[in-house]
Specification:
single chain, about 270 residues, alpha/beta, Rossmann fold, 2 domains, 11 helices
């Protein structure tokens, strides 16, 4: 019997390394792929869009917060990969009664790297996972907000919008906040928790210098930049790839390069 601890401190027990895995978290689905677990992953969610051929061919078990229990049962999983925030507590508790469920709890870069290594452990991919985590840590170490960053600057007063009608931003206890910090930016709403509602007046009062519009979960586009520029003439408004700020698995390797380019080309750091 093999035993592993998840990020909530829970112990799961497996008779062997799993050959039938269901992932309920898009960023962790992509991680499983990048760790080389191709045939082992038998079920994903409808939001697990990477890799694309998995999205087209793997069995979908519903959404991250609305999973289909019957479909999961039909797949006979040996372990289910979930996340504290992205999945619904009641559904996960129901699954725990029937299957080993490994739950991640990621809120900054450190816990993201920890998650990658721990997933590598229970999937028998430890060396590959450690190498991936080390690569990500090295790349993020070159960003301005890192202790190793080579280009320290005064922090730009920044807000990051994830939703419209109403506008919603990110508080100081979110993974996106941690990424903003890694970029050397000041999150104007770091004193809030989770995803607070704000309005244009809040951005004006806070003297927002830089406003990021995310492509997910709300699909902000160029037209929204033009609208906001009229209301915030002294703010630089930039459309950003939401996956690069919020996916905390292997996509972080791409995210570091993306963020460096964003800061260099758009923010002139």
């Amino acid at each position: 019997m093999l035993s592993f601890t998840d990020q909530l401190g829970r112990m799961i027990h497996l008779p062997s390394y799993p050959s039938r895995i269901i992932s309920l978290v898009p960023s962790q689905t992509e991680l499983l792929f990048d760790l080389g677990l191709h045939d082992e992953v038998v079920g994903i969610t409808k939001f697990c869009v990477h890799p694309h051929h998995w999205f087209q061919t793997k069995t979908r078990v519903g959404g991250t917060k609305n999973i289909n229990m019957e479909t999961i049962q039909s797949l006979r999983p040996e372990v289910i990969v979930a996340n504290k925030e992205e999945n619904t507590r009641e559904q996960i508790e129901a699954l725990i009664k029937q299957y080993p469920v490994w739950i991640s709890d990621v809120h900054d870069l450190e816990t993201a790297l920890q998650m990658i290594v721990k997933v590598g452990e229970f999937t028998h991919k430890t060396p590959k996972a450690i190498h991936l985590a080390e690569q990500i840590q090295s790349k993020f170490g070159q960003l301005p907000g890192s202790l190793n960053g080579q280009r320290p600057r005064g922090k730009l007063r920044t807000a990051y919008l994830i939703w419209k009608d109403p506008y919603m931003t990110v508080g100081g206890d979110t993974f996106i906040h941690a990424i903003l910090e890694a970029c050397g930016l000041k999150n104007l709403f770091e004193h809030h928790t989770r995803y607070p509602e704000i309005n244009i007046a809040d951005l004006q009062t806070a003297n927002c210098q830089l406003l990021f519009l995310s492509t997910e979960p709300y699909p902000f586009a160029q037209k929204h930049i033009e609208q906001l520029k009229g209301q915030l003439p002294n703010t630089k408004v930039v459309l950003v790839d939401g996956e690069m700020f919020s996916w905390y698995g292997s996509r972080l390797l791409q995210a570091a390069d993306y963020l460096e380019k964003l800061l260099r080309d758009c923010l002139k750091v």
